[in-house]
Amino acid sequence: xxxxxxxxxxxxxxxxxxxxxxxxxxxxxxxxxxxxxxxxxxxxxxxxxxxxxxxxxxxxxxxxxxxxxxxxxxxxxxxxxxxxxxxxxxxxxxxxxxxxxxxxxxxxxxxxxxxxxxxxxxxxxxxxxxxxxxxxxxxxxxxxxxxxxxxxxxxxxxxxxxxxxxxxxxxxxxxxxxxxxxxxxxxxxxxxxxxxxxxxxxxxxxxxxxxxxxxxxxxxxxxxxxxxxxxxxxxxxxxxxxxxxxxxxxxxxxxxxxxxxxxxxxxxxxxxxxxx
Length: 276
Known about the structure:
By secondary structure, the protein is an alpha+beta fold. Among the domains are: 108-151, no CATH class; 192-276, no CATH class. It is built from 5 helices and 15 strands. Strands 5-6-7 form a 3-stranded antiparallel β-sheet, covered by helices on one side. Strands 8-9-10 form a 3-stranded antiparallel β-sheet, with no helix packed on it. The protein has a 3-stranded antiparallel β-sheet with strand order 11-12-13, with helices on one face. The longest helix is centred in the middle third of the chain and has 18 residues, at 156-173. It is globular, with a radius of gyration of 21 Å. The two termini are 41 Å apart. This is Thyroglobulin type-1 domain-containing protein. Keywords: Disulfide bond, Repeat, Secreted. It is found in: Secreted. Its main location: secreted.
């Protein structure tokens, strides 16, 4: 007996949902306010919420967890999330020092360097369209632009992060683990990540590490703090009507102008499947 993607055959020879599969969520979860896009039992790389005029699309991994990359739904035609997906795959394989660069919608930037070699890549797929050269010869590639790239491939935040990761790899090879490095959080375009640390406090930051208003939290909030509300208000201004928590996350409980309560998810979109 063959079951459709997202379902499996049980001992009674009937099809039952596979826990956590995308197809089951798409078929059975009628409360969720958006229908997941699936590739078989896996989540498709691009997931969109809201409606086309005002909604947004996000990159996710195969299990549906959000990863780097987003775009307004109305401008999503060329969005593939191929770069973000590839970096995630390499991380899952144990690579700590991946230096691929993804653009804001999770696609490949044109100039790519990793493992000491550089090439020009097609943005949607990452397919090379040039010679592959040593990193110290990247200026000879047709996609190299001095004004945008400068003399070094790595950007400010990731220069520190990758140096730390390579030291970790070297130390691990000699039996040492857990070196005491400062907290460093970068995005896949080389900019600073949304959650940054200063002393014993976390704060929400823009791409250049400047603080976003007063959004902050104690170090214990690290596992759940994402600053998505703070970032969206910084990027989209008054278009974001939902309220943020003090740590920069979206406040799950929201109210309409007439006082009706409703719930939103961590991306700021209404979701009847969660309790708030």
